[in-house]
Specification:
The protein is of the alpha/beta class. The chain is built from 14 helices and 13 strands.
């Protein structure tokens, strides 16, 4: 399937924002940030004079010395957050040259977290988070073959283009190694790299279930606080993300246990866990897009009460629930959890999403049962 790498879903929004501010572009390693940034320069390779990366020594010297090609209309500074004083450096450059040059700052870590230095950049930039390809971005026709491709290869550009399971397995192993051994070295003071690798190996089996830090602590034989710190680092490096429990109404709900998911959903085991991670990633992409482009406060949660009744996801907009989502691999009858919570919560509509063909609505439960592709269209996922 042809994949357009130069026309990602964020491109028109970034172009518009560059007329007034800097744009910071974060996201997982190898998700396509550099390709998107180069498209703002008219395409081409990393050899473009307006592209500089902290990973090259010659570019580092030019960046720190502010020896930049200010005759270019747009400058792309890649991975500059690895420099301890990057925040003050960017502020000074932008304040002096921002009227004549547009700036794009990209990084494979949370640029809103790695802000070391003095004065704030607040008010000088818009921050976007680039996600892997979703079904809607990959295929406007939302075809079943595209769903199967995403569930097999994940949403990262290179494996999608190659469409080879062998290539994907090798790509995934190399990517994890780079994150754990290179990005950790550049950004964090972590000495027990082998234990972090063991943590990464242990997390896929825990996808979609409430995460027990105590269990991981015992397995790795390290302190609870250490495991919590390492998971937070993996979040900051865009390897994993956590979904917190929903709190609302007078229900007796679980309040603390979070779920964990991977940005590369194919790291989750095949079957139900991967499909749930797949849905979670589509919903998170939707939430981040609505935050980054429209300014709404979005939250992705899950709903679990103390008796084990659960709704896999609840999406909130400006603190109000938009909809709940229950993930099923087949189109069975409406789950008992939806029946229970529809009568006791203020969630306006529930979707039971599956990979088969049935599509029907049960008004007594405010529930639509529908295939995943139709769900993407119904909700307006990006």
């Amino acid at each position: 399937m042809p994949i357009s790498k130069n026309n990602r879903y964020l491109l028109p929004w970034i172009k518009e924002d560059l007329d007034s501010k800097m744009v910071f572009l974060g996201g997982p390693r190898q998700v396509g940030k550099t390709t998107l940034a180069l498209s703002l320069l008219g395409g081409g390779s990393k050899g473009h004079p307006a592209y500089l990366t902290w990973d090259l020594e010659a570019d580092r010297k030019r960046i720190v010395g502010v020896q930049l090609p200010f005759d270019q209309k747009v400058l792309v500074l890649d991975e500059i957050h690895k420099y301890a004083r990057w925040r003050n450096l960017i502020k000074g450059i932008y304040d002096k040259h921002g009227d004549s040059t547009k700036f794009v700052v990209t990084g494979s870590a949370r640029l809103d977290y790695y802000r070391k230095g003095g004065d704030s950049l607040l008010g000088r930039y818009h921050y976007y988070r680039l996600h892997p390809y979703s079904l809607t971005e990959l295929d406007s026709e939302l075809r079943p073959d595209s769903v199967r491709l995403l569930l097999t290869m994940g949403g990262f550009p290179e494996p999608l283009v190659m469409s080879s399971e062998r290539f994907y397995r090798r790509w995934r192993r190399e990517r994890i190694t780079k994150i754990v051994k290179e990005d950790l070295r550049d950004l964090e003071n972590v000495r027990e790299i082998s234990l972090v690798e063991a943590l990464v190996d242990a997390l896929p089996r825990r996808v979609s279930t409430p995460l027990s830090i105590n269990s991981l602590s015992k397995q790795l034989e390290v302190a609870h606080e250490t495991v919590e710190k390492w998971i937070s680092i993996l979040e900051n490096l865009y390897m994993v993300y956590r979904v917190a429990p929903y709190q609302g109404g007078k229900l007796d709900l679980v309040k603390k246990a979070q779920k964990i998911f991977f940005w590369d959903w194919c790291q989750a085991p095949e079957g139900g866990q991967r499909f749930e991670n797949f849905i979670a990633s589509h919903l998170l992409k939707y939430c981040h897009f609505m935050e980054d482009s429209e300014g709404h406060m979005m939250e992705l949660r899950y709903l679990l009460d103390v008796k084990g009744r659960e709704i896999d996801f609840v999406v909130l907009k400006d603190r109000k629930p938009l909809f709940g989502v229950e993930v099923k691999s087949s189109n069975r009858e409406i789950s008992n959890s939806i029946k229970y919570f529809s009568a006791r919560s203020k969630i306006p509509i529930f979707y039971q999403v599956h990979l088969e063909s049935d599509d029907y609505f049960k008004p007594e439960y405010r529930c639509r049962v529908l295939p995943f592709a139709k769900f993407c269209s119904e909700v307006g996922l990006v």
